[in-house]
Specification:
The protein has two domains: about 160 residues; about 120 residues, Endonuclease, Chain A (3-Layer(aba) Sandwich), CATH 3.40.960.10. Helices cover about 55% and strands about 10% of the residues. It has twelve helices and four strands; from the N terminus they run H-H-H-H-H-H-H-H-H-E-E-E-H-E-H-H.
Length: about 300
């Protein structure tokens, strides 16, 4: 519950700003506290502005906290009927909704009619969509279509349009040293027949650190993504039991949904062997991660 000692209750803007600050600082509050804050906002939804609605949902997705689906449904309904809802508020809210419920097909199915209405409202002015907004719509589309197999959110024509616009966001990027180091080690492993560093995937909406090709024991060719997850991928207040943030978790889910094997490489495990140039230990980290990924798939499909 939210407690306050003065006569003036917290405003929706104050709560939205507080959660946004937590997500920026990569500090994850107890989920029950976040859900109470969202419920407070839902109870005062008539006072919510479009920016506050989308900020609430984005913060929840980044903090990996999932409010009850009925609360999110009310937030989306309010967003649709808020004057000047705008493309940015809608696209970021659809991205956040897909991220929060990516593992819950029933929730996504319940929200889909409303989500499709919001997509239609937004894409009526598609010429105003920015690269970031196009990428957010594409990610939501992939969650519905590829992760939970609930059918597409966007038409084929709109997917192509958003992909063309969205790629401008990734047209210029600075290769990260950590990812380059992982690629260098992977290139020395006989396990992989081909290794590329910084490759655009999923219609260009994201880039992976290292993309490898390998042949499995069954003769099937597999695409393996090695993700160099540095400190900024993790919540800063959960050091003893590290947890990747919502954006990173969603990326891994999407990559697996389209058939890639995903091997996260934790910076803490990598740092020591890299400094001592212990190549065998570094290759061992990748091999163990790959074994864990194949085991994960076997368990999932058993």
């Amino acid at each position: 519950m939210i407690h306050h000692h003065d006569t003036k209750p917290p405003s929706v803007q104050t709560i939205a700003n507080a959660l946004h600050g937590c997500s920026l600082a990569r500090v994850r509050p107890p989920p029950s506290v976040v859900i109470d804050m969202v419920r407070w906002c839902v109870a005062h939804i008539d006072t919510c502005k479009r920016k506050e609605l989308s900020s609430l949902m984005l913060s929840c997705s980044q903090l990996r906290v999932t409010p009850p689906v009925e609360d999110v449904e009310l937030l989306l309904q309010a967003l649709r009927h808020t004057p000047q809802s705008g493309e940015q508020a809608v696209s970021s809210s659809l991205y956040a909704t897909a991220s929060m419920f990516k593992d819950n097909a029933d929730a996504l199915r319940r929200l889909k009619p409303l989500v499709l209405q919001l997509v239609e409202d937004t894409t009526m002015t598609r010429h105003m969509l920015t690269a970031k907004q196009c990428n957010q719509l594409l990610i939501a589309h992939h969650v519905y279509n590829d992760v939970q197999h609930l059918g597409p959110l966007l038409s084929e024509d709109l997917v192509m349009y958003c992909a063309a616009i969205g790629q401008h966001q990734l047209a210029v990027f600075q290769p990260r040293n950590f990812g380059r180091d992982v690629a260098e080690v992977a290139q020395g492993m006989e396990l992989f027949s081909h290794v590329e560093h910084e490759v655009h995937v999923l219609e260009g909406i994201t880039a992976v650190d290292v993309l490898c090709t390998m042949e499995g024991d069954d003769g099937v060719q597999h695409h393996v993504v090695l993700e160099a997850d540095g400190p900024l991928h993790f919540f800063s207040n959960l050091q003893e039991e590290p947890m990747v943030d919502g954006r990173t978790d969603l990326k891994h889910t999407l990559l697996r949904a389209v058939g890639h094997k995903v091997v996260p490489v934790h910076w803490k495990e990598w740092d020591g062997p890299w400094k001592s140039r212990d190549v065998e230990a570094l290759q061992g980290l990748i091999k163990r991660g790959l074994e864990a990924e194949f085991h994960r798939n076997c368990v999932k499909h058993s």
